Amino acid sequence: MLSRGLAYIEPGETTAFEIIAEAGILHGSSSDSDAGITFIVDPALPTGEQRIAIRLDLESSTPDAGTIAAGKVIFEMSNVADKRIEFGILQLPPGVDRPPPLHFAPFLSGKRLLTTQTFRDLFRSEVIRSHEGLGVTDIALLFTDLKGSTALYDRIGDLNAFALVQQHFERLQDVTVRHNGAIIKTIGDAVMAAFLRPADAVRAALDMRSEIASFNKRQPDKALILKIGVHRGAAIAVTLNERLDYFGQTVNIAARVQGLADADEIFVSQDVYDATGVRDGLAAFAVDPRTAHLRGVRQELPVFRVGGAV
């Protein structure tokens, strides 16, 4: 199957497709209208230049079928509709009477869009009205914070501490993007990030801890101490303060789960731990199940503390 021509034909205009037809079928179609043609190419017919005038509108083509000889053929496509028509012609081999159907795999869902860092960077103020909101049925949220950041500012001064914190933000964003996530916002020294899947969020948490540990080796007197929490569930996406943000109980719980973590610890909720791929991803680490009472949550919540490698 070969493409023989493609053109955008404006209303009232005529475009000529000059084609060398081969045995088989010339099939023409439009992606934005019902116009289409099917011409059988019969090598037994006498050759010679052939010129065929075809009228296109949004519902049909006239004529839309016929038999032609192999060799040079010119289709004069006249657009009689009131909008532009995109039209293409394919050469189908003998025995094939129509192009194979196209199957498109899902690629960009709303959730994927909202967890794509490039989209958030380029369209950070894209409006989802606060009185409406966009419901996201399942999102993995990761919160981080730095332990002892106040003492760090006091020890090395505001400018030095601020520079370190900014470098830490850059490293966490790099890790987040690598694992199919996006930074939602920074709050002081803390980060809120969203991920397509819980397993992505957990892998990101492990890499964040490793990244900051490597960062600290280069400056042992200015170590940053990271604490991480991960939870999943439904949330509402809205635009607030010119930024796309998430709200709801899942966000509250994710922040509270992070609050359970101490130095270099990762805490994940039961919902995260039970998600596909998470247990396998944590197989090499010490995982300690616990039960926590979180402020604002009625029932105790099963959580898991992720320590170092075993």
Automatic annotation (TrEMBL):
Domain Guanylate cyclase: 140-258
InterPro entries per the UniProt record, alphabetical: A/G_cyclase, Adenylyl/Guanylyl_Cyclase_3/4, Nucleotide_cyclase
Gene3D superfamilies linked: Nucleotide cyclase
Pfam family, one: Guanylate_cyc
Superkingdom, natural source: Bacteria
Residues in the signal sequence: none
GO molecular function, one term: adenylate cyclase activity
SUPFAM superfamilies: Nucleotide cyclase
Protein name: Class 3 adenylate cyclase
Lineage: Bacteria, Pseudomonadati, Pseudomonadota, Alphaproteobacteria, Hyphomicrobiales
